[in-house]
TrEMBL record:
It catalyses: alpha-D-ribose 1,5-bisphosphate = D-ribulose 1,5-bisphosphate. The lineage of its organism: Archaea, Methanobacteriati, Methanobacteriota, Stenosarchaea group, Halobacteria. This is Ribose 1,5-bisphosphate isomerase. Signal peptide: none annotated. Keywords: Carbohydrate metabolism, Initiation factor, Isomerase, Protein biosynthesis. Reaction proceeds via a cis-phosphoenolate intermediate. Substrate binds at R29, G30, A31, A32, R72, N216, K217, K242. The active site is at C137 (proton acceptor), D206 (proton donor). Transmembrane segments: none annotated. Gene3D superfamilies: translation initiation factor eif-2b, domain 1, Translation initiation factor eif-2b, domain 2. The keyword Metal-binding does not apply. It comes from Natrialba chahannaoensis JCM 10990. It comes from the Archaea.
Length: 359
């Protein structure tokens, strides 16, 4: 039997650390995909844990969950996925705990896929033959609605917003083209002009609050306000894993602030701040010269890069979930049904609370 090097030091498996890094750097991105990857990582942690006693195994698992949780703060699908898996962990031996963790993660991933396809069929009912859909960012839930519509023979065209600064619109455009959908790609600033040609705005969600507010990629709220002004209905495609339980007890959803270099490179910063310094200063800045870094921190040029924003429920026509379509104001009833009054952090659940009882 393998020995646990130090049961007091929870060992997070390198594969879990890699997944966490991929989520943080957005190689793995989008709320559903993040949830899927987190569940898979917990299964890996369980599979590879070298713990020899149940308490050490539980510490390993909890440490892995925490590392995954701390990557990005806005998509509630991440803590919801971790909580779902951890709640199903049971057994008196390491082998039993391992088996139940792996099975629970597998069940989660299967249900996630099923929910997305059910949601797609429901969302497709809102789309009519020949409709033009405007998208923002890249949402697998939103694309599932279009895919289901296409499968039932409905012709759909798309106006795809580029979505600065990370240009997730390019992913949407590529996947829609693979599905045979005619795509018009536009810069974000052109959205209002092209709303005249759209029959729907269709977006996903990272979190949905108890009052029906939708937290999604920055720019969603402006798009929704413009759509309302132009009379274009706004449809949010979001599996129930996007419902944010903490908002039932008055908590707000954290909006992730990302690195300024997604918006402005070091080189571009130098161009703005000291255009007369020319190429020499540009190259030192790009090389990461310490003096430049310290002058940057003293700079009065501030770049803000919020990754998400909040769209109030009054600008949203329907939230489409795998449990049906809801007006945003009624989503809280579904949340109560699904979550009860859950507010604990994912790693405080199940195995973790049992362990706390023992120590
Ligand atoms: O805002 C984004 C992605 O932001 P980022 O690129 O910063 O992760 C997506 O609209 C939601 O996550 C929904 O996606 P899905 O429907 O695939 O869960």
């Amino acid at each position: 039997m393998e020995s646990d090097p130090d049961p007091n030091q929870p060992a997070v498996d390198p594969a879990v650390t890699d997944t966490a890094a991929d989520i943080a750097t957005m190689r793995i991105r989008g709320a559903a995909t993040i949830a899927d990857a987190a569940a898979a990582a917990l299964a890996t942690q369980a599979e590879r844990s070298t713990a020899t006693d149940p308490a050490a195994f539980e510490r390993n698992l909890r440490a892995g969950a925490r590392e995954l949780y701390e990557t990005r703060p806005t998509a509630v699908s991440l803590p919801n996925a971790l909580r779902y898996v951890l709640r199903g962990v049971e057994g008196e031996t390491v082998a039993a705990l391992r088996k139940s963790t792996i099975e629970r993660a597998d069940t989660f991933r299967t249900e996630l896929e099923q929910a997305q396809s059910t949601l797609g069929e429901i969302g497709a009912n809102r789309l009519r033959d020949g409709d033009v859909v405007m998208t923002h960012c890249h949402s697998t839930d939103a694309l599932s609605c279009i895919e289901a519509a296409l499968e039932s023979g409905t012709h759909i065209e798309a106006i795809v917003k580029e979505t600065r600064p990370r240009k997730q619109g390019h992913i949407t455009a590529r996947q829609l083209r693979e599905l045979g959908v005619p795509v018009t790609l536009i810069v974000d600033n052109a959205a209002r002009r092209y709303l005249d040609e759209a029959d729907h705005v269709l977006v996903g969600a990272d979190s949905i609050a108890a009052d029906g507010s939708v937290i999604n990629k920055i720019g969603t709220s402006g798009l929704a306000v413009n759509a309302r002004e132009r009379g274009v209905p706004v449809m949010v495609a979001a599996q129930t894993i996007k419902l944010h339980p903490d908002t039932m007890t008055g908590h707000t959803v954290a909006i992730e602030m990302r690195d300024e270099q997604e918006v402005l490179s070091l080189e571009e910063r130098v161009e703005i701040e000291s255009p007369s310094e020319g190429a020499e200063s540009r190259s030192t800045a790009v090389d990461g010269n310490d003096d430049k870094d310290s002058s940057q921190s003293e700079s009065d040029l501030t770049v803000e890069n919020p990754a998400f924003d909040v769209t109030p429920p009054r600008y949203i026509d329907a939230i489409v979930t795998e449990r049906g379509q809801f007006p945003p104001e009624s989503i809280v009833t579904l949340m109560r049904e699904l979550f009860g009054e859950t507010t604990a952090e994912p790693w405080e659940e199940c195995v973790c609370s049992r362990q706390t009882d023992h120590h």
